[in-house]
Amino acid sequence: xxxxxxxxxxxxxxxxxxxxxxxxxxxxxxxxxxxxxxxxxxxxxxxxxxxxxxxxxxxxxxxxxxxxxxxxxxxxxxxxxxxx
Length: 84
Known about the structure:
Helix 1 (5-20) runs antiparallel to helix 2 (30-53). The protein contains two helices and four strands; from the N terminus they run ααββββ. 48% of the residues lie in helices and 19% in strands. The chain is elongated, with a radius of gyration of 21 Å. It has a two-stranded antiparallel ribbon with strand order 1-4. Strands 2-3 form a two-stranded antiparallel sheet. The protein folds into two domains: 1-53, no CATH class; 57-84, no CATH class. The chain is α+β, with helices and mostly antiparallel strands. The longest helix has 24 residues, at 30-53.
């Protein structure tokens, strides 16, 4: 399955919008406001990418060499998994 890019965009969009809606007033320290905004955006992007990557499905074709704790061999069929 393809990566769900729309989910990534929606998650980042909402997190950035939430960050922009943090209340500020004339007593707010502009440097602190900038740092908070940058921190919230960084968290939104990194969390969004982490979630986005986990929407992928990984497919391994038959005949791929593998090594496990019990020995080595090759895949005998198509393997489908997810990233966790």
